[in-house]
Amino acid sequence: MAASSHRIMLGPLVAAIDQGTSSTRFLVFNSKTAELLSHHQVEIRQSFPKEGWVEEDPKEILQSVYECMERTCEKLTQLNIDISNIKAIGVTNQRETTLVWDKESGEPLYNAIVWLDLRTQSTVERLINKTPGQNKNHLKHKTGLPISTYFSAVKLRWLMDNVDEVHNAVVSHRAMFGTVDSWLIWCLTGGKSGGVHCTDVTNASRTMLFNIHTLDWDPELCKYFGVPMEILPRVRSSSEIYGLMKSGPLSGIPISGCLGDQSAALVGQMCFQDGQAKNTYGTGCFLLRNTGPKPVMSDHGLLTTVAYKLGRDKPAFYALEGSVAIAGAVVRWLQDNLGIIGSSEELEKLAASVGTSYGCYFVPAFSGLYAPYWEPSARGIICGLTQFTNKNHVAFAALEAVCFQTREILDAMNQDSGIPLTQLQVDGGMTSNRLLMQLQADILCIPVVRPSMPETTALGAAMAAGAAEGVSVWSLSPEDLSEVTSEKSEPQINPEESEFRYARWKKAVQKSMNWETTEPVINGNSMQCSCYSHNPLQAHVSVKLHFPHDGCSRRAVKQIVSIN
């Protein structure tokens, strides 16, 4: 370890925990220049216990944060950078992912149910069927969200109905609910020994329990989902001191910024003005457009969400959001499930080697379709195959799928705002794929602008933490914000070709619809129906009926299932 006299003095530094769906990172920035000084990354394992289920281990998530912190501090020390100059830590996280833990033991009571998880589909259908006119937007006036498997409330309801440990902890007032930010902040600030149970407005706005107008938990929404308000974290702004780190090399440093990952990217891209937008390519793909201090409701399948609230006494800003479930996740699927690539870099090489999908279209609706359709019954399809099609064409179609999905949400956003975007600011891990960026420009018919420093999500969390009252080492005044260097991809194909390919994509999307239902499925001489009840103690009903070979009417079964 270098002597203190030889350490490089850079002025105040600010760190960020970036806990994503597929990895955790810890990054340290210079608050005066926004330069990234060092970082460390650890991959997170996902488990798929049943079809459509996606879980992660809360302890592994927490351990990955500690590991990234320690390794980054070691790297800074090797660079002769004094870690005592880190003045604040921000947290940004995968949103909606749902955890429940025991406040007395500090132990998680079940795995984290990841935002992509589909186990609540039948609960969602049941809720929608109970609304006037079977309207999935029944709660949108308060939440900005459709009733969907995506959001936390139905995941929490499932945990309370189906996991005894969770049910018992709720009954005995030991349960704490939170999204990933709440779990991390509670643990890092002391856990069962005085940890701070809080969340910020951006994460709270993704639960379906939060009123985006009052900026607080809504008693009627909590009653609707049967969630006791005592288990919820306190809602805070995105930029204030929540508590101090209680252990590790950064013990005593305030945690003072908290933003859901897509809001953090909006801040990191400096989209502070009404009308500014960014698209992040991560596990999913998320296009957010700042709509200013008033929420704007979409008529075209977009979400209304809280963009940020950068201080206790500062106004909340809102955004329209187009959410795509599967973007980078399709790369992982091609690698882990099909084995046709060994790395994400190999995907770009395969796709570039053919330069076309040769009429092959890939709709990766692994978790249904999100914006603008909100169709949980959709499933992934690859269509337009011929004997000529090979893995290179499928690789190209996978990249095109990310771009087509972005085109769909951009079209919806342009229709809602009435002012078409003239260029698209992008960030996230997939933006290092130059072929993808060129395809995106071609399919959108507008330039795509990528910052040279792609870690805008972590940067946004660091900015919020550094600007917090009581820290104040990062100015968010427009004249003080660092100039961002970027690369631009211009469209290179004619609009007619782009429109033709997009029309074929839309046709493929229609083919993916209504694939999966909770209607009974005939299998030989028996029928299996599995559905999750919304009511405690009636959590899982399984009906199996056997038929003779004489073609007995199936209508009776539908009646039995509907009665249940």
From TrEMBL:
Q: What class of enzyme is it?
A: transferase
Q: Which InterPro entries match?
A: ATPase_NBD, Carb_kinase_FGGY, Carb_kinase_FGGY_CS, FGGY_C, FGGY_N, GK1-3_metazoan-type, Glycerol_kin
Which residue range or ranges hold the Carbohydrate kinase FGGY C-terminal domain? 278-468
Q: Enumerate the CDD domains for this protein.
A: ASKHA_NBD_FGGY_GK1-3-like
Q: Which SUPFAM superfamilies match?
A: Actin-like ATPase domain
Has UniProt tagged this entry with the keyword Kinase?
A: yes
Query: Might you give the EC number(s) for this enzyme?
Result: 2.7.1.30
Pfam entry (one)? FGGY_C
Residue ranges occupied by any Carbohydrate kinase FGGY N-terminal domain in the UniProt entry: 14-268
Q: Where in the cell is it found?
A: Cytoplasm; Mitochondrion outer membrane
Alphabetically, the GO molecular function entries are: ATP binding; glycerol kinase activity
**What does UniProt give as GO cellular component?**
mitochondrial outer membrane
* GO terms (BP aspect): glycerol catabolic process; glycerol-3-phosphate biosynthetic process; triglyceride metabolic process
Q: In which pathway does it act?
A: Polyol metabolism; glycerol degradation via glycerol kinase pathway; sn-glycerol 3-phosphate from glycerol: step 1/1
Provide the alphabetized UniProt keywords: ATP-binding, Cytoplasm, Glycerol metabolism, Kinase, Membrane, Mitochondrion, Mitochondrion outer membrane, Nucleotide-binding, Transferase
UniProt lists the family membership as follows: Belongs to the FGGY kinase family.
Q: What is this protein called?
A: glycerol kinase
